[in-house]
From TrEMBL:
Species of provenance: Androctonus bicolor
Keywords: Signal
UniProt-recorded name of the protein: Non-disulfide-bridged peptide androcin 10-2
Signal peptide: 1-23
Length: 67
């Protein structure tokens, strides 16, 4: 029973370490290549519609900021 608990704790720590190192690597790459080149603009791509005015897009972007 003790070995199972130890193994479970070891896996949890290993999982946490890999996710933190992945975030560190992504942060380092983002710092190297700049924020504009690595920014995620996919959320605003679906907003393009020729019938929408600039005011409509601005309102939608304000609504999506906190989403």
């Amino acid at each position: 029973m003790k070995s199972q608990v130890f193994f479970l704790l070891f896996l949890v720590v290993l999982l946490l370490a890999t996710t933190q190192s992945e975030a560190f690597v992504f942060g380092l790459l983002k710092k190297l290549f700049g924020k504009r080149s690595m920014s995620d603009m996919d959320t605003m791509k679906y907003l393009y519609d020729p019938s929408l005015s600039a005011a409509d897009l601005k309102t939608l972007q304000k609504l999506m900021e906190d989403y």
